[in-house]
Fold each of these.
Amino acid sequence: MVAGERGTRREVRVHLLVGAFCFAAFVGLGLLVRHVPGSLDRLLRDTVATRWQGELGTVAWLVSAALGPILPVLLGVALLVVTVRSRRRGDPRAWVTLRVLVLLGLCRATSWVGKPLFERERPRIYAVFAYPSGHVVSVTSTGVAVVVLCVWLAPAFASLARATALAATLLICGARVALGVHWVTDTVGAVLAVAGVGLLAIPALRLLPAQHRNRSPVRDGVGRAGR
């Protein structure tokens, strides 16, 4: 076994272990707070979320409008179009964009599955269940997909993508709590859910950076196309 293969297997184990931990933490937190909000939840609701009808709420609404469920939809459509076009041209990078599209869908689905599973009420009257936050799941899922895409196809932008994804995730977490439509643990649970599913799915979809080093998108696509 060559050193590269050992490194790849080590990274796979780490991703699976951390991913399983994050997903278990997501489930455990959801079970813990589904009926009774924690002390931090209540504190932030009483000190921040009660101001949602003022200027703070207006800013939070604007952030929520810009950073929300529309992001994974736009990215998903873009990835689908690029995949189809690349496939028609015989571009092997289509296999990368296709796998990133699947990753995006799996991460985004955590909100759709989690909300009816935990049935947590919002801090104020709202039509949809709270845990995990769909907005935070959307932004975090989009960030994960963009970072992975950059690692494979535009490495020079990977660091910028990571920083932007982190900033956007923190921003939407704060906005949803300030708007009074989510407990802070809803946002934490959303990040844990996406991190768990993402870390478990990335090696399964052969999107690890180590797998990128050992097999370029071109060789990977050509090899799959030849099967």
Note: The chain has one domain: 3-222.
Amino acid sequence: MNNNPNLEMEKLPKELTVLFSLLSSRTGQDQELLNMDWDFFLELAFHHRVYPVLYKMIKSQNERRIPPNVFAVLEQAYRSNTFQMMQLCQEMEFVNRLCTESTIPLLFLKGPVLAIELYGDISLRTSCDLDILIPIADLERLNGILIREGYQKDDYILSVLGDWKWRHHHVTYYHPAKGLKLEVHWRLHPGPGKEPSFTELWSRKRKSDFLRTPVYYLGKEDLFFFLVSHGSRHGWSRIRWLLDIHQLLQQKIDGGILHSLLKKFHSLKIGGQAAILSTQLFDTKIPKELTWMLDEPQASILAEQAFFYLHNQVNLHSNLLPPEVFDYHKRHLFSLMSFPQKLLYAISTLYPYHTDLATLPLPKYLHFLYFPLRPFLWAWRKTRKHALS
């Protein structure tokens, strides 16, 4: 297999290659810092959300080649992020207590617990919200609790015939007084697709005692599966997600358990994609028991595809993506799927969407008619869209 895909490192901006060198502690020549656009360097550090760990590495290595004004900007941002993470720690304890008192089991997916797990310090990873996973059966109960505590639900999910349960994977809450956002997951990833049940994940959970009360989070192999699935779905458009993989691969992961997990959920090639990108960009040393990831079929191709997002500094969270980025990302998402996943996705398109309800409003007791009507409603929308354009 091709363990060294053509990732076209030479086509990356110098500022980005220097960023990779600093984050991976590679020793470079003074020459590489000549003619640097330091404003662009900072822009990349903030875009990729790696400025806290970048600041720490520059400071610990006593890196004198970085201009003082650049270091000062990173230091200020580092301090602000530390304060933000301390706020999230407080809210973690609060949400954890609410769920414990209501006997709702929850797993923290990201936030401060992930910073501690991967970097050993809450200040070294950014996070703008808390992500928790609970059983779907407890969603309604937790919704009532959060509303009573001042959270406001963002009702952005449009659904018909209950498709939200498997097409979506989380709902967002915002607390205006605290200025904090909470994402409540009932799945790890959007559907359709198979993934470990909450019961399975709970049985393999780990406990963290860095707060005054214990909190629970994913086991190592489940965490790897979650992070590579999330990162690949976003095209690894932020290198912070790859830095997370680099950090996780420094820990002891059971190769047999991980292989079985990724194989069961058709994710071997995206595990390989993440491993290849991490080795190429951060010089990650893959443990012997995990080197099979580097030889996964199609992993090299997927790694090459991910460079589109680095070359173009893609922000998938922007309100309006350029058409070429939107089309590329749609194709990339499809290429991440296995054949069974593609088949399941094709079948799922036959299930009614909320757009069918908007096209032809029917009373709720007649919603079952959207199944036979869906092809005609889809064709009508396409015809109208073409006519309007």
Note: The domain at 9-331 is CATH 3.30.460.40 (Beta Polymerase; domain 2).
Amino acid sequence: MAAGCCGTKKQKLNNSSSVPCNGSVLQNGTQIRNSVIVKPEMGFFCFDVLYCQLHQLDPPKPPNFSNEAFPLFVTWTIGKDMRLRGCIGTFNAMQLHAGLREYATTSAFKDSRFNPITRDELPRLHVSVSILRHFEDGVDYLDWEVGVHGIRIEFHNEKGNKRTATYLPDVATEQGWDQIQTIDSLLHKGGYKGLVTPDIRRSVKLTRYQSEKVTYTSDMNNFIAQ
């Protein structure tokens, strides 16, 4: 199951296999550190996959990095301001070679919020790979830390329908939200249209998780990681 994580646009979520999200990056110059799974080669691989798709070439050869199975997201941004261009991921654990190949193209061409990425945009693109780990059930809607955890919530909307929504770990920090603001935004993003009350917040089932992330910025030939 996948979920969107956009911090700037409201996105209706359901139980489909892949749903858009919003990626983000650290400031230029941050060194890769504390990375167990994510590797710079994953960014290269996503670019190779996209290049081959755009130029109708055979897909790239299998990469050399780990092929373990993890939930993952691929985010495309563009320009110096790294404006979101497409992001889709999955909470299903996928083998990394197949998962990155699939979501590099899905996020580039099938994010319903954006037109498909074109050849002309290639020189200005950046790609972020997020590998999700350490999933834990929260005791309540406040059992997570801003800037450390991504959160995924389950709740029922006004009609009693079960809905889900997620933000990756860096969304709340980027938006300047505290925990309650993040939960309220996530409820609305997931389709809750009414007034968010303390009782509604307490009814949320929360799962927290962490991510390893690397960003390849093609125009700067640089990697930045979280």
Note: The chain has two domains: 19-133+212-225, 135-208.
Amino acid sequence: MFHLTFALPSLYVLARFLWPLPWAPGGKVILAIVLLMASQYHL
């Protein structure tokens, strides 16, 4: 089950720090998925 309470801080990190990086879009998407999975793991 996806918990929004734990996903919101990771979405903030994605929007604020990950997207402005000058990386390839594929790398950003993979890192975003890993970050969201890690946020859900802590539950």
Note: Residues 4-41 form one domain.
